[in-house]
Amino acid sequence: MKQWLKTIRKGYGKKLVSIHAWNAWIVVILAVSGLMLIGGFWRETLGIGRVWLKWLHIAVGLAMLVPVVYYLFLASKHWKQLRNKPWQKANTLLVLALLIGWLLSGLVLWQFKLVGPRWSNAALLIHDLLTWVGLPYIIYHSITRTRWLKDPARRTIQTNESSAHSPGVQHAANSFPVTDKPDTRNTPAAISSARAESDSSRTSASKMEKPQPVYTRRAFIRSAVGVGLAVTLGPTFVSWIGKNLKFDNSIDNMLENDPNQMIPLPQPSSASSPPIGGGAEGHFRVYTVTPIPSFSNANWSFRIDGLVERAQIWNWEQFVKLARTVQISDFHCVTGWSVYKNTWEGIPLKHFLEKAGVKPGAHSVKFYSGDGVYTDAITMEQAEMDDIMIAVMHDGKPIPADLGGPVRLIIPQMYAYKSVKWLNRIEIIDSEHIGYWEERGYDKDAWLPGVSQRYPNTSGS
Questions:
Q1: Burial class for 160, CB neighbours closer than 10 Å (0-12, 13-18, 19+)
Q2: What's the gap between Cα 8 and its chain centre?
């Protein structure tokens, strides 16, 4: 084992340079792919490529384990060299904590269906925090330390070659007496040569003692990199802080700036004002594959058609008068975050199906978004669940456009990509329909952990 460790640690300085270089590339790839995965523009542009990008992100994240583990074999030797360097010790511990934190939280998010919503919700928050706090630092560190380590004069561990050519070694080598030549030390030429060497030594010494500039070119480059990263990632980090610390992410704020102009506003029932669940716990993240649409009485309607006995259509004034019920349910996004104890008020899907009268041969219920792009579907058996709701209110307030209002679908036992936002049409169809995200690689049945056996898929897949 000792011999194996000795072999691993051979060429320690160069290996440390390689570890920094690999970490730099890995972090850059993870940063770019991660930002693309959460960006609304890329969600629509990439299509099914987003699923491939997600797996690339996961694979590269797992690859981060290699340089971390490899460094651990070198850590004891590195730590000895940092014995009297507290700042470098702190820096090393910080970088390791960031890398290990990313790995662990990323593993939880990767296996979100196994760990459950609460663990994945916490992991996503940690993953985001480490990203926005640690990403600028670790890229800056990797770039600057790689350049620093490549400079033999500044590397913590000197190579044998550099030590052999150090001034002390050179002096020792030149001090051996030479006996096969006459002593010419007192000749005029020797005296002149000695004076020249002495002058040269004084000149070199004066250069070494000369005060260095306060802001060197290298320091300027490093600072420029840091400032560039701060300018690039800073606004996104501030936005993330604002959303997650509720600086500007309340439902009231969304409603205050709501582009929807629906008249009259729905009035809450006594069961949802105040909310019977005590109010939602958590924060919604706004994801959309299109720009957020806006609606008014003039351009909004709701209909149910297809394989039904009585196709129907409502305008807003008629729709808002329909009898509503209230339910409390959790809301889980497939990306890992959740909002608990939401009080939704609306019309159960079963009531619409009963009112319209479903014809024989119906296979699926297809849902259309008012953005004109997004669709999804569930089977007729799945549509029998009592808690599927066409929601009009959330926690006793109208649903803002950011959250899918004025009307959205809520399927509590499935991940939220099934809960179509800006819902304005229900169609009963005689075949299977592959929804927007299912076309791009998501599971057709978006069951939460523990419920798939209660409501099996009858489509044969």
A1: exposed
A2: 34
Instruction: Determine the residue type at 437.
Output: W
Q: Tell me the C-alpha distance between 45 and 360, whole Å.
A: 39
Which DSSP category does 307 fall into? Answer: S
Residue for token digits 């970490």?
23
Peptide bond into 406 cis (omega under 30): yes
**φ and ψ of 430, to 5 deg:** -100, 15
Quote helix, strand, coil % in the chain, to nearest 5: 50, 15, 35
Query: Strand 301-306 vs strand 423-429: parallel, antiparallel, or unpaired?
Result: parallel
- Nearest-Å Rg of the Cα atoms of the chain is 33
3-class SS of residue 421 = coil
**Residue pair 257/380 in contact by the 8 Å Cβ criterion:** no
The pair of three-digit structure tokens given for residue 248, joined into one six-digit string:
């500007």
What phi and psi values does residue 172 have, to the nearest 5 degrees? -65, -40
CA distance 32 to 408: 32
How far apart, in whole angstroms, are the C-alpha atoms of residue 303 and residue 122?
39
Q: What is the pLDDT along the chain (461 residues), one digit of tens a residue?
A: 666 666 666 666 777 778 777 877 887 788 788 777 766 566 656 666 767 788 888 888 888 888 888 888 777 777 887 788 888 888 888 888 888 888 888 888 888 767 777 787 788 888 888 877 777 776 666 666 655 555 555 554 444 444 444 444 343 333 333 344 444 455 555 445 545 555 555 555 444 444 444 445 555 555 555 555 554 455 445 554 554 444 446 778 888 889 999 999 999 999 898 898 788 988 888 888 888 999 999 999 999 999 999 999 999 999 999 999 999 999 998 887 889 999 999 999 999 999 999 999 999 999 999 999 999 999 999 999 999 999 999 999 999 999 999 999 999 999 999 999 999 999 999 999 999 989 877 889 899 887 754 444 433 33
Read off the pTM.
0.63
